[in-house]
Specification:
Elements lengths: L24 H10 L19 E2 L6 E5 L8 H6 L3 H10 L7 H4 L6 H9 L1 H4 L5 H7 E5 L18 H13 L3 E4 L3 H7 L9 E2 L16 H12 L1
Parallel strand pairs: 2-3, 2-4, 4-5
Antiparallel strand pairs: 1-3
Length: 229
């Protein structure tokens, strides 16, 4: 599989709220205008937080496909700390990605670190360090904007094509891909995933906890082999 190079649109993310790729912003604003009912509240995108579409090095051997970044009550204070938002914007703009900054940075009470620590607890319990995993795992969100709950946007944002590019590039280098909660959505966006042999699926579709208990023995062995490559 040959995958052409695609420029990273997140390098153009606005430097102040509302944080967004400029080409996405009109669509995001139109979406917000339609979310007028109380029932829409969990799905509203929070553009006061910097987007997090990609976490990790773009050529990592293990790839986790996710929905979109969440929102916690602790987020506003966490991102208001000096340097945190700037570090996030630098990370997503990097041409080749950077090691997972939640796992390598000193802000130990950041909600992002808590999420990653829970997700990777099954690996750290086996002796993998956060520094190692920060370089071996790439997380790609279906879209990069925060909300409390997931609901598909009824439009493909311009920035999403970069996520699809990263997935195709992962397949071209035979990376192991973890595909869980929104597997169907990902397979529609990137049809090649349906026949890709290095896809592994968690037993609990809503959880991407990387542990022996959440994968078949064969799939977990493939994950471990990817981490050793």
């Amino acid at each position: 599989m040959v995958v052409d190079q695609v420029l990273n649109p997140w390098a153009r993310t606005t430097r102040a709220a509302p944080y967004a790729v400029p080409e996405d912003l009109p669509h995001l604003q139109a979406l917000a205008d339609t979310q007028v009912h109380a029932s829409d509240a969990p799905y509203r995108l929070n553009l006061a937080l910097p987007p997090e579409p990609i976490i990790g090095l773009h050529d990592a051997p293990l790839v986790i496909l996710l929905a979109n970044p969440g929102v916690s009550d602790a987020d506003p204070a966490a991102y208001a700390r000096p340097g945190v938002t700037e570090r996030t914007l630098h990370h997503i703009a990097s041409a080749g990605g950077t090691p997972n900054h939640f796992l390598t940075h000193a802000h130990k009470d950041h909600p992002g670190l808590r999420w990653w620590s829970r997700t990777l607890n099954g690996l750290t319990a086996q002796g993998y360090s956060h520094d190692e995993l920060a370089r071996q795992i790439l997380a790609v969100q279906f879209h990069g904007y925060h909300s409390r709950s997931w609901r598909p946007i009824p439009y493909t944002l311009p920035s999403q094509f970069f996520a699809f590019h990263l997935v195709r590039r992962a397949m071209s280098r035979k990376a192991v891909i973890i595909l869980g909660r929104i597997a169907t959505t990902w397979k529609i966006a990137v049809p090649e995933l349906g026949s890709y042999p290095n896809v592994v699926t968690p037993k609990q579709s809503r959880s991407v906890a990387v542990s022996r208990g959440n994968f078949s023995r064969e799939d977990f062995e493939r994950i471990e082999q990817a981490l050793k490559s």
